[in-house]
Design goal:
mainly alpha, flat
Amino acid sequence: MWVEFKLLTLNMAIDIQNKKIELIQWLSTLEDAAIIDKIMALRDDERNDWWNKISEEEQESIETGIRDADQGKLNSHTQVRKNYEKWL
């Protein structure tokens, strides 16, 4: 089973690499500026970090959680379920 999984993973990686090469070859021959602009916009959207799309309050909450975790201020899953059981 493990060997089958590794082979499937390897095949998927090769397939992705082949698709990248195919795209590069296609892009190198593309003359349509509108399509190139759409591809560039897609790339820019993918680069846009989700962090910049959330509110300052959400950012601060995440940063507080990371600091708490770094300092070992964590609750077990059992404790969290107990604290919030009335909403679950």
